Amino acid sequence: GQWCTRVPLICFGTVEWHLSDRCLRQFGREQCIPLEVPDSQRAFHGRDGRQGTRDWTTKLANFIAIWENRQSQDIVTPNQVGRMGYHDPYLDRYWQTSVRYMTPEGEADGVLADGIERIKDMTTGRTELGNEDVSFIR
């Protein structure tokens, strides 16, 4: 469907990107790591086209070409089955690039949850331990 296409939306001199790869989970799809936000040539952003006659087809030719080839811009991922894993590549990236806690209480809860998850990883062999002995945790 068109909802899963990553294309520029064009209205006169304004170009806004439809970045569906950032919200695939809402549609029951497996979330991939989103691509970088494309350059929308900020000079066009916020213009409404009433500032005189312009040939937008020439000025926005590169964006129009992407739009006309939109079928090749579909984001294809499998359906999401179950919950996303704690160490899913998308979540690992998300935790590295996002503000995780808005309040001190949220941070305390998050740090506790992260610690419990780390202990679980250590005891199930999902984390490299080196010479650490975790038998006492088991």
From TrEMBL:
Residues 3-94 form the Aminotransferase-like plant mobile domain. One of its GO terms (biological process) is meristem maintenance. Pfam families: PMD. This is Aminotransferase-like plant mobile domain-containing protein. It comes from Linum tenue.
